[in-house]
Amino acid sequence: MSKSEDKDIFFEDSDLAYEEEILRNPFSVKCWLRYIQQKKSSPNIDAANIVYERALKELPGSYKLWYNYLKGLRQQAKGKCINDRIYEDINNAFERSLVFMHKMPRIWIDYCQFLVDQGKITRSRRTFDRALRALPITQHHRIWPAYLKFVSKYELPETAVRVYRRHLQLQPEKAEDFLTYLMKIHKLDEAAIRLASLINDENFVSKEGKSKHTLWNELCELISKNPDKVTSLKVDAIIRQGLKKFTDQIGLLWNSLADYYTRAGLFDKACDVYEEAIETVITVRDFTQVFDAYAQFSETLISTKMESTADTGPTDDDDVELELGLARLEDLMERRPLLLNSVLLRQNPHNVLEWHKRVKLYEGKPTEIINTFTEAVQTVDPKVATGKPHTLWVEFAKFYETANQLKDARVIFEKAVEVNYKYVDDLAAVWCEWAEMELRHDLFDEALKLMQRAVTPPARKVDYHDQSETVQARLHKSLKLWSMYADLEESFGTFKATKAVYDRIIDLRIATPLIVLNFGVFLEESNYFEEAFKAYEKGIALFRWPNVYDLWSTYLTKFIDRYGGKKLERARDLFEQCLDGCPEQFVKAIYLLYAKLEEEHGLARHAMAVYERACEAVPQAERYEIYNIYIKRAAEIYGVTHTRAIYEKSIEALPEDQARQMCMRFADLETKLGEIDRARAVYAHCSQICDPRSQVVFWDSWKKFEVKHGNEDTVREMLRIKRSVQATYNTQVNFMATKVLTTQAPANEMERLEQQAMENVDNMEMEKQTQLEEATKKPADKGISFVRSGTTTEEQGPTAAANPDEINLDADYSSSGEDEETEDKSEIGLQAIPSKVYGGLKNEEEDDE
């Protein structure tokens, strides 16, 4: 430092220590920073700056000193006018710092930002350029954001575009920012060029996550809406390229191309584009988009033309153009169904239903209908067609038939029968339609010749199910064709020819049960009954159960109706053949018919044998019904006593529910016959399958029976049986519950206690049952007396004393858990026993005394 400069420096007493330290260590940054920190608290603002200057003279390459110095200078300039001298001094300080700090991006950034804040545009731009030249390329990414922000801030489009171009050379991935700026300043031509280059660049990845498809849509929208500004690109070629590449946006791209020509004022060209679009789109969605846009375009043209003529007055040319536009719009609306049908046919040209719809749309236009049918039969491939392709040929022929051109219709049918269809039934349907056409015009011989020609077999043997063979070679086994042939022969041919047709159907083994039945009916109508029966037998030989059931049923019925008992042995053989191998679900009707035959024309014992066989052969669900029929017929033929054995067999064979009903009917029968002991035995037998808790009806029936026909011993025996059965059912239930519980070891103490409680309950039930059995074995006291049901206490006298051992049936029934009501709502004891029984019992008592 020179002596003149020393004179301008003012030292304070507190500076002496720092000055001495600097003298000792003039190249120590820490010493200078401590001195500067002390000077910042001084009221003299320039004191710190003087120390900074002194320090930088000693250490001009210190980044820390320069950074802090410049930062302090910028803080001192805050709030001051932009024209203040301090700004220029700070700029000079930045320039001096860059002599040594030109490789420090932070200094350049601060300097450029400081110049931008001052509004020095040119100087700022040049400083940014100097920074980019001075710094290595690896540091440029720190300069460019501020540079781009600076050029975007002012309306300097040319400068900004050039800066962006330079920036893209370093960072091409930031091209979308450039596109945004170009659209902002309305440089759409360059924006379209840049966007097209991005789409063509396979390595470009959008930082905003946009796909190539999205970028393509943006390009199409940009060039279609700005035809006057985008001049460097071939719009038509670009959009058509998109039509080939992006097939899911066909409608949108076509509309964009038409919109481009519309905005360019080329309305005829736009119409051509719309027409081309609706003729080429293949989806209904794209068609709807294009058609709606086309209709709106036409309406806009018409409305615009009408407004212009209203303002200036219409001329002849304007009227012609207006009429032409209206006619074009009307024609477009009329063509919409056909255009939509064309779209669907372009989707699937083998859709038969759509071809039929197209023919209906041309109703009233014969030439168009013929052309459509011709195109349809030439286009549709029967192997892959959707629908029935033969219907196109049939409808084509019918169209000529309605025009009374049978010759042309036959030509169509001739070509139709030569087509290689996928299924034989399709070809058979064509032959049948051809024959029906001949029948409609009363050409019966021609129809028969056609059928005979159709069923003619090929020279070699062909399997009907061999798909490798043509349908023409397999046609001779078509049941549909033979069925119609048989109907025609039966209606218009001879008996011999018709029989030959049916025989041929059976020989080819293509007959159905219905065909056989029709053959049989035809023979019967012609009084060839034995031939009919032979036909039934041939048909039966062709089929198995269950398909043969209808044939057997018809055959047997008609044979019985025809011969009755004249050929009984033959009828029996037929029934045995039918029943041999017959499934159980069909035997019921056969056995009943067989039994009816034996009843009417055979022997009664044979009929009973048939019924017995039926009871064993029918399914379990139908045995009850068969047993009832068996019992009824046996009673009518042999008498009711002959039914006892049948009842016994039915009770053994039927399930419990049906066995109970049969037992009650059996007991009722024995009761009516006066066989009281037999009836009681039946009740006792049935009681073993009747739980008193659920089968209340049975026990009520037995109770009424004993009241009416029994005595004291029988009543006691009934009650003993009832308690025994109830105990048995209780024991079974408890035993099953215990078995379920004991199959698994107790998992905890609670389960162990539950098992123990269950065992205790079982033991108590067993003890109770034993006591009941012992009680019922005790002899009755001889002090028991029976009283007439109609006597009162006064009439009874001394014999009417209360008997503690008297049996109360209601009490016993209520103790078993049953609630009952008698007819008179009162208790029923042995007093209800009829006087006849009471008299017999009383006489027995007197004899004993």
UniProtKB/TrEMBL annotation:
Taxonomy, superkingdom: Eukaryota
Subcellular location per the Swiss-Prot or TrEMBL entry: Nucleus
Keyword DNA damage: no
Residue ranges annotated for the Pre-mRNA-splicing factor Syf1-like N-terminal HAT-repeats domain, each copy included: 14-173
Ranges for region Disordered: 766-849
Annotated Basic and acidic residues bias: 766-781
Similarity comment: Belongs to the crooked-neck family.
Protein name: Pre-mRNA-splicing factor SYF1
Source species: Bugula neritina
Upper taxonomic lineage: Eukaryota, Metazoa, Spiralia, Lophotrochozoa, Bryozoa
